[in-house]
Amino acid sequence: MQEEKRAYLELHIAVFLFGFTAILGDLIQLSALVMVWWRVLITSASLLLLIRVGRVMKAFTRAQILRFMGIGVLVALHWVAFYGAIKLSNASITLICMATTSFFTSLIEPVVMRQRVRWYELMLGLLIIPGMALIVGSTDASMNTGILVGLASAFLAAFFATLNKKYIRQSYEMGITFLELGSAWLFLCLVLPFYLFFSETPVQLLPVSLTDWGYLLVLSLLCTTLAYVLALRALNHLTAFASNLTVNLEPVYGILLAWILLRENEELTPGFYLGGTVILLAVFSYPLIRRWRRKRGLEA
Questions:
Q1: Beta carbons of 219 and 39 less than 8 angstroms apart
Q2: Which PANTHER family does the UniProt record give (predicted)?
Q3: pTM score, two decimals?
């Protein structure tokens, strides 16, 4: 019982830190791609203190290593889209877009995992559409591009999470994380020169102040490395239902932080709140419906 209480506390801290990433993305004065480049570099370097590279290479076959590196590319694209959406709109709108990840997962997972489509997942997914329509209709047109990029980020998150679920058969999750984040950094190293060459405006490669350096370290070490380790420890003592329900709090924590720290509530309309409520109700209904069906033996 004591271990379960500690696991809930650790998971809530991890989810809170995950939600804080959106705030830091808004505060750090770097472009989305450069910010992610620094994030995966610092995080990968910190993981070197927790793992042995030799063990990683021995733990997986060449095909598995290449597969996880490919998933790492999707992670990189997801984070670039996520922070790009924040720069193009704001943190609150981006976090609501990320709440649609469960809907995209309900469409992607049956294809990737070769499972049948669950009718209630599609119904909850359909509820998200009017919620997004309310948000788009009530926000300034200048933020529409940010909403589209935010939805693309949610789709990419659902895609790489489903692939991880399919291919992670080993218990060495830390090694997999290193492979994915390391390959994300290598991929962005290849993309960065083209970004610098084709950018119409000068690109800042280094943080402009000690404050930005501090935000970057918090983003990488606390909101990524520490949050991942806490979540990993917690999941060893919690059910899938409990962990999924808690993780769904991420956009809620993030939006509350955006209101408090960034005062984004001053630029949001009643339509945003109504649309966000519809989306969050659909997201929170999902694990409850699954639990109800499992209790009645309607699904495994």
A1: yes
A2: ACYL-MALONYL CONDENSING ENZYME-RELATED, MOBA-LIKE NTP TRANSFERASE DOMAIN-CONTAINING PROTEIN
A3: 0.88
